[in-house]
Each structure stands twice: as C-alpha cells, then as structure tokens.
Amino acid sequence: MIPKLIIHNSISLDGSTTGFEANLDVHYKLLSGYQPDAIIVGSNTARTGTQFFCEIIPPEEELDFKKPEIQPDDPRAYWLIADSRGILEGLMHVFRRSEYSKDVIVLVSEKTPEGYINYLKERNYDFIRTGADRVNIRHALEVANERYGFELVVSDSGGVLNSILLEHGLVEEISLIITPEIAGRNGTNLFRTLEKSGTRLELLKNQIVEKQYVHLVYQVLKE
C-alpha cells in the first residue's frame, strides 16, 4: 500500500519557490499540523537546506555513527531523502542532528555509488534501494509503508521531486502557502519539470494566516 501523500510548499504569488522570503514559522507550523509519519525531500533541496541548520558544516562525531534512540511518544516525523547520486555524502549528520526529525531514511537506486552505500551503512542509516537508475518513488513509498508503517507522507521539496510525484499519480492533496510577494523572472516554478498538463484540483480549504498569508489546500482529482 502507498501512504497518503501531500505536497506542501510556500510559494510566491506568481507560483515560484524561490526569489522571495518564505515565512518558515508559518510553513512548518502548518506542515506539523498534518502530523505526518515522514517528510520526503529531494537531495538538492536537502543540500540547500543545510544553510538553515548551520552556517558551517560541523565535523562528524562518534554519536553521528549511531542510530538515535527513538521514544515511542516522539511526535516528530522521519525524513525520507531521495539521493540516488549520493550528493549528500558528508552531510547526512546535519539532518540526523536536527531537532525536527526522528532520523533519516535514504532512498537510493541500483546505480547509487557503492561508496555512498558504505557511507550509510557505516553510520547506521536505514536506506531503501529501488529503481534501476533513479529512485522508483512509488516502490520506495510502498516499502516505507510495509517496513515502517508510514500512512501519511508530506513532500517538503522543490519542483523536480514534486513534479515526479504528480507525474506518477502519487499525490492526493496539495497544500500551498501563498506569500504576498512576486518573484518575477528570477523565480523557479513550483512544477517546472512536470510534463503532463490538465491535472484537475478541487479546493478543500482556504484560510488567511497571520493576516497576510493564504493557505490553500486542494484535492488532486483522479483521471
């Protein structure tokens, strides 16, 4: 079974994920309200996000090689990071140390470098290996449901991963926080790599947050 999947993003008025200052407090408050079992993120988004956790990447310590002890009542979500190319080697401890995640589960493919797989094994990271070249997201989500019991996963990622999720019909809802800014020509479209057109949506919720942000939630209608 595939977990319910929600795309959650903060965007500018003209549909960009960059070129404006998102309100991270609002973004993560609304995201945490879903109480997801896991948050899925692409490797490029994760690498860019390291700047929010630390100005300089700290060296690894002994504890970074150990799987954290998770309490049964821990409300935090796991992070599912898709990284078939292994670009996060040397950075994974930044995410494991985050106060916002229980631990990290890495999604890799058959083409993922063995050196990166060994890096994950040496540090006791769980990983799901599926897909010949790139990660087979559908199968990875099925495994996450079977292995960890994940029932709700929220995508907090950029346009590439979100486009893949939509392209493969995996998304049930889209949650958008509209920021009152216009990014213009330097912006990056939310679904910039989505090839298919005509995805139909039904508005489920519209809410004004902190008097200036609009939170829209849509159901993705099945074809």
TrEMBL record:
A molecular-function term among this protein's GO annotations: 5-amino-6-(5-phosphoribosylamino)uracil reductase activity
Matches recorded under SUPFAM superfamilies: Dihydrofolate reductase-like (SSF53597)
Pathway the protein takes part in: Cofactor biosynthesis; riboflavin biosynthesis
Alphabetical list of Gene3D superfamilies matching this protein: Dihydrofolate Reductase, subunit A
GO biological process: riboflavin biosynthetic process
Domain Bacterial bifunctional deaminase-reductase C-terminal per the UniProt entry, residue ranges: 3-210
InterPro entries: DHFR-like_dom_sf, RibDG_C, Riboflavin_Biosynth_HTPR
Pfam family, one: RibD_C
Keywords, in A-Z order: NADP, Oxidoreductase
Keyword Thylakoid on entry: no
Protein name as catalogued: RibD family protein
Source organism per UniProt: Methanosarcina flavescens
